[in-house]
């Protein structure tokens, strides 16, 4: 178990956490500006969009006690439908994708390990790993390769010290989606050395061409597929994310969840389950893709002036 020192002065000992500049700038300014062009999600839904005719009564009748801390059964069942050969014991529900990324990184990496991290990226996983004393090797997306990584270089960079390969697919901020061949070529070096693949897949469902991005889950026995409702679903205020992984890892990660947030909110669990009902899920994602394509046309017209 690692000890975290969140605030470190000159005389203090412990783990130094780098300032998360991107997140802090957004946090300080996103509610103070008239036009926010920095967000990478979809314009949020309202609670009324999730509720049926009896929904309001269900909400007011909901007891606000502690819910099942790894996620209510119905919610995990609905998450499992998003992945091949996945059941509820492969899933840990977290407070947003941020906690899922944090737990997955914290529980697997140690000082002195190597990690290969896809860049550009949101930088959360990168910052956590560096704060743990991990040697982070960048895997840059190449503009001349249509924002794909140099996979020959990846094969060279992975060694017996490599503990994790972290990817974001679809990628934030480029929007690039890995081909099936590229995904397999990422799996190959990971499986050669027994490294984890941490796949942040929170943008699945927000594809402009409406073709759903395949998950890394099911391609290799050491995949951690991370996702949530903040981006493609337009529900960041619910703070619901999840890890999909091998059952023994999920049991292990639950222990870390016990030390972080314990559980998400009962109301958030309820609304998340409504959002992931298959019919509602597809309506939400279709709406997201409509919004994104409409806004892209506006952006192109603005840039072309």
Task: Describe this structure in a few short sentences.
With 305 residues, the protein is of the alpha/beta class.
Structural description of this entry:
Strand 2, helix 5 and strand 3 form a beta-alpha-beta unit. The protein starts with 20 loop residues before the first helix and ends with a helix. By secondary structure, the protein is of the alpha/beta class. Helices cover 37% and strands 14% of the residues. The chain has a single domain (27-303), classed as Type I PLP-dependent aspartate aminotransferase-like (Major domain) (Aspartate Aminotransferase, domain 2, 3-Layer(aba) Sandwich). The relative contact order is 0.16.
**Uncertain residue segments:** 1-8
- For this entry, what is the oligomeric state of its chains? single chain
Q: Helix count, per DSSP? A: 10
Do you know the CATH architecture? Answer: 3-Layer(aba) Sandwich
* Fraction in helix: 25-40%
Q: What number is the mean pLDDT?
A: 93
**CATH top-level class:** Alpha Beta
Write down the CATH topology.
Aspartate Aminotransferase, domain 2
What is the terminal separation in angstroms?
56 Å
User: H/E series, N to C?
Assistant: HHHEHEHEEHEHEEEHHH
- Radius of gyration, in Å, reads 20 Å
What global shape is seen? globular
What is the strand tally? Answer: 8
Could you give me the name of the CATH homologous superfamily?
A: Type I PLP-dependent aspartate aminotransferase-like (Major domain)
Strand content: 5-15%
């Amino acid at each position: 178990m690692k000890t975290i020192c969140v605030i470190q002065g000159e005389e203090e000992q412990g783990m130094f956490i780098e300032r998360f500049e991107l997140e802090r700038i957004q946090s300080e300014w996103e509610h103070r500006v008239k036009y926010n062009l920095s967000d990478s999600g979809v314009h949020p839904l309202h609670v009324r969009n999730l509720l049926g005719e009896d929904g309001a009564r269900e909400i007011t009748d909901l007891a606000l006690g502690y819910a099942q801390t790894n996620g209510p059964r119905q919610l995990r069942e609905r998450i499992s439908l998003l992945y091949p050969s996945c059941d509820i014991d492969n899933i840990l529900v977290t407070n947003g994708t941020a906690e899922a990324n944090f737990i997955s990184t914290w529980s697997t990496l140690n000082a002195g390990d190597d990690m290969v991290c896809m860049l550009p990226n949101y930088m959360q996983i990168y910052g956590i790993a560096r704060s743990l004393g991990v040697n982070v090797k960048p895997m840059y997306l190449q503009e001349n390769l249509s924002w794909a990584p140099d996979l020959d270089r990846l094969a060279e960079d992975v060694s017996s010290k490599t503990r994790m390969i972290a990817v974001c697919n679809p990628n934030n901020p480029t929007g690039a989606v890995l081909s099936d061949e590229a995904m397999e070529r990422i799996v190959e070096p990971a499986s050669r050395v027994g490294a984890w693949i941490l796949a942040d897949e929170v943008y699945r469902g927000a594809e402009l061409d409406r073709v759903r991005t395949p998950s890394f889950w099911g391609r290799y026995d050491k995949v951690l597929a991370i996702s949530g409702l903040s981006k493609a679903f337009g529900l960041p205020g619910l703070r619901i994310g999840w890890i999909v992984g091998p059952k023994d890892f999920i049991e292990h990660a639950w222990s870390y969840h016990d030390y972080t947030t314990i559980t998400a909110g009962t109301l958030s669990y309820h609304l998340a389950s409504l959002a992931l009902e298959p019919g509602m899920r597809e309506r939400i994602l279709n709406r997201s893709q409509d919004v994104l394509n409409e806004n892209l046309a506006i952006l192109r017209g603005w840039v072309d002036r």
